[in-house]
C-alpha cells in the first residue's frame, strides 16, 4: 500500500463490520482513488459527521498486519474500496468481503465501483447472494 495508511483495527484480521471510529480511516482509503470511490466517499463524509447509521449503511473493513487496507460501503449499493491492492492481497480482501457478505446476507440492490473490483467481488458472491 502507499505511504498513506488508515486506522489500525486493533489486531483484527480478515473482514469485519466497522464502527463510527473507523470512518476516517476508510475515507483515507477513498482518497487514494477518488473517482472509483466517489459514491462511498459521499456516504462516508455524511457518516463522519452524523454516524454510519444516519448515513444509511455499514462499513466493512479488511486488515492486514493490523492496518486497514480495504473497505466496503454497504448501503443501498455495495461499493468496494480497494485502492492500490493487487495480486494476492487483493484476492484476500475480496475473499474476506465475500465471506462476510455471505454471512450477513444480501442487503444492497447492486454492486457499484471500478469494473474489475465489482466483477471480481460478484464472482465470489454469485450463487451465495440471490440476483436482484
Task: Summarize the model shown.
With 132 residues, the chain is α+β, with helices and mostly antiparallel strands. It has 5 helices and 5 strands, in the order βαααβββαβα. It has a 5-stranded mixed β-sheet.
CATH architectural arrangement: 3-Layer(aba) Sandwich
What shape does the CA trace take? globular
- In total, the number of strands is 5
User: Please, how many domains?
Assistant: 1
- Element-level helix/strand string: EHHHEEEHEH
Distance between the termini: 34 Å
Q: CATH homologous superfamily?
A: Gcn5-related N-acetyltransferase (GNAT)
The description of the largest β-sheet is: 5 strands, mixed
Strand order of the largest sheet: 1-2-3-4-5
In CATH terms, what is the fold-level topology?
Aminopeptidase
Structural class: alpha+beta
Q: What is the percentage of strand-forming residues?
A: 15-25%
- Provide mean pLDDT, rounded: 89
Supply the CATH class. Answer: Alpha Beta
Radius of gyration: 13 Å
- Helix amount: 40-55%
Low-confidence stretches: 1-8
Q: How many helices does DSSP assign?
A: 5
